[in-house]
Give the backbone structure.
Amino acid sequence: MTNFTHPFNPDWISPPGDTIDDLLEELDWTQAQLAKRLGYTTKHVSQLVNGKAPITEDTALKLARVLGSTEEFWLEREAQYRAALVKVEETGCLESWVDWLDEIPIKVIKELQKACKITDCRLDAKNKPGIVRELLEFFDVASPDEWRACYAQLEGQFRRSYTGQDNTNVITTWMRLGELEVEKQSCPHFNRAKFEKAVQEIRTLTVLPPEDSIPRLRQLCLEAGVLWVLVPKIPGARVSGLARWLNRHRPLIQMSLYGKSNDRFWFTFFHEAAHILLHEKASKEAIFLDEWEQGEKIESDQEHEANEQARDWLIPRQYEAELYSLRSKEKVTAFAEKIGIHPGIVVGRLQHEGKVRKDCMNGLKEKMTMNVIEKMPQPTDESAQETEQSAYDLAVKLGVIGAAKNLPPDLSSNKEYMSGFGG
């Protein structure tokens, strides 16, 4: 009797019945004879041979006794056949879904290829079914219909800072890249008090270089139950940051370095942090998008509140009169050092409010680039421990803000300044 102990790896679609038929021919048996030995009807054996009836565990055991080999062989033969049928069916579905690619801008597909999220290949008829499959895997959805239900309808949750943008599918792709990044991070439930405290400490990080400030920012957020992720911008998204709740316990701040200057980076962070703290109860379904100078500005109450809070966190209102009198690099630098923030943030504020020209004192700003940030270590989950050294202490240790001792003693106790921290 033939012994089948080697693995069966066919490169064609062959039902287990083909093997049964071959053995019947070798043994010179009819299907009726096999049916009698198996205890089945002739009709059932015919269905087994034709692949219409599956090989169950009971059938596999009987086939092993009667025709040889093992129960495992017959079960594996059946599993491979069914998997091959599914693959053929999937191929047909993927070919019928290629029109879905028209809903996703080519520039998005190219960016995902560039980021090695999908295979880098030509977008031709031969490759389109494979691209469809990889995009479905990227978005974690079963079909284009589920993608439309999960992502295309997110626009209804967008709270945009500007109107006139028709780039929902580009933004949702950028959002998905952020989701994939934070899936790797464990995070405690959101703790409002810890995050309020973290925001205070994060303000002192603005004077540090990115390689020191950003890992600390990310860690402070993580310890407070807030996920923070930096995802490179993709063409057409034009979003510098967003604030959203992935679920009722996990808020996310996602940023893109859109604009690349440190004043925009820090204002964006504090703007999104304000959304988390100020609008937690308003709607955990909302997705707050921070866009830069596109279309007509939307002056919603929530956007106005987030802007005001970010401005006050960075430069408290009690210093506005002195701020608006600054007209030289030297005075800007001295003022920034006094209140403990980076001078580029002061310049950005003056430019934004029209107090100085857009091309004035840009040398005080710093560029934020992904090549430095991508080399940074991933955060660790230290949520159960309080970090002993504050960012302020770290800055002093590094000699970055040695003159920070000149901070006004009433800054942390100022009620107006502390209003957004729950103080």
Remarks:
- DSSP finds 19 helices and five strands in the chain.
